[in-house]
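Lab notebook, bench 4. We co-purified these components, and the gel suggests they stay together. Before we commit to crystallization screens, I want a quick structural picture of the whole thing.
Request: model the full complex, all chains together.
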Amino acid sequence: MLFVTLSVLTVGLFLLDLVVGAVRIPLGDVWAALTGGDCPQATAKIVLNIRLIKAIMALLAGAALSVSGLQMQTLFRNPLAGPYVLGISSGASLGVALVVLAGVGSSVGIATAAWAGAAAVLLVIAAVGHRIKDIMVILILGMMFSSGVGAVVQILQYLSKEEALKAFVVWTMGSLGDVTVPQLAVLVPSVIAGLLLAVITIKPLNLLLFGEEYAVTMGLNIRRSRGLLFLSTTLLAGTVTAFCGPIGFIGLAMPHVARMLFRSGDHRVLVPGTLLSGAAVLLLCDLVSKLFTLPVNAITALLGIPIVVWVVLRNKSFTA
Amino acid sequence: MIRLHDFSIGYDERTLLREVNAAIPKGSLTALIGRNGTGKSTLLRAIAGLKRRYAGEILLDGRDISDMRADEMAKKLAFVTTERTRIANLKCEDVVAIGRAPYTNWIGRMQDADREIVARSLASVGMEAYASRTMDKMSDGECQRIMIARALAQSTTIILLDEPTSFLDLPNRYELCSLLARLTHDEGKCILFSTHELDIALSLADSIALIDPPQLHCLPTAEMARSGHIERLFSNDGVRFDPVNGIVKANT
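Here is the predicted assembly.
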């Protein structure tokens, strides 16, 4: 029932996202543009080339970042884990910084660099996490790693030319609107592949609720599962971050919203639940950002921070 | 049945057990005792397949665990660790149901037979009334029972428990160990649990495995009490073991 409500809400927000924008376009014209009916050329362009792509991006990015956050929270058994907190986005940004500041501008180049950066961070965390039992230590290492990467990125910025610098700074501000159709052709399959892997790892995630050792004694092939989870998160968070820049708090907050809404810890419910909540909320954030012409990252932060604060206050024991 | 064959284990320089040959029989509740730091947990974790660095062989019902995959092991052996596990937002029956993981499909779909086993496992530990409650507001003893029910749902012949009584008060300790004894005898399981409670081990376990570094002695409880091992290991200036009454006394 809740799934139906959320799905309807998501579709509704998606359509609303097509209607709302800087230019006022009548509902009929939006519909005509979408269905290839009769409407002014300029209107069709705005609806299809700008608003539709942006709405698809919000949908995909919201779903991808939220599912990635859920995976990391369960794997690290930490409610404050997520792509952002553990430095996966920083890794991606280092990759992007290296290629953008070196003068490479192709979408495939940026995507590859972001993936490589995200994967590198995940490998480091996986290697370190294997030795360290205390999950809080891993979290702190992740944060320190992020700061370290931030420093490297700053040095790169300092050394780079003005134009490249501007391109990178714009990327770091996060935007759902700077994606082109060819980029979408890279992004959509990557996110879908990541989500399919997320579906395959539903049972491993349920076992991992008990911690890795229990999961192994219940038959989990831990290396394979970790590998699949890291690959999935890299595809999801790495790709979205590559094209949209780091979008904060969605990946951290939405799994908690799903847990609260569905009152379940079962990933068979949580994976689709988190996916839908994430898509709906990022669409909502995009709508708000358009209505007040604010950067989307500011909206996700303002919405996400209260949720995270609530989780910390409620969950004093810090267990997922 | 668990069999150790020329089994040695240790950390870096330190040997905990050397060339141990021992058998933990089926249909018997075995208590694993030993002083702090002598390797009780290490031994249990090795048998559970969580510590792969050892010499010699560990055989479960005749099969070497180094030849077994995790999913095969999970059908043969279940483990309850010292970790106090509380999973928020998951009902007790769902927690126990995850013990069916080795038998369910890729997404963990439960068949009628699986649900029946889950219900029976909850009933075995006397927690059927808790089926639809969540673990976050339950006591340590209740959570421990749910984790044991989860181990039972794995339908294994062997169950290992690492200090299952350590967070429990006295009545709960006895109750839990009586439960383990009942499961062993009613269902013919092979249950091995580590404990610091000498009195519980002596009064409820069928046999005792005692770590006397670097050796492991395995004897029926009555024989172990008479053997002199316990007195030697557990006596110091402060306490002594009385083998006649099977109790520990303070030296006065």
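Chain B has a mean pLDDT of 92. Worth comparing against the SEC data before the next meeting. Chain B is about 35% helix and 25% strand.
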